[in-house]
């Protein structure tokens, strides 16, 4: 993912979130042409994937490809976790 451009005064907000232990501070930032990457240390592959899926779900993106998901599940009224293409391949293909 591309780094998010922020202003130098916004760094204090990110550091405050880090002090609280908030996971929303995790990410890649661009400050005056310098990339600042904040991530957890020594994560296993499964933990990294879990964080990626969690972040994509929160943003309403397909967990596989990252496309914007538009359809909602009628029973839960939440966005599906997969785009229409991957729902057809993965979810509907297993039935």
Automatic annotation (TrEMBL):
Domain of life assignment: Bacteria
Record's protein name: Profilin domain protein
Organism whose genome encodes this protein: Leptospira bandrabouensis
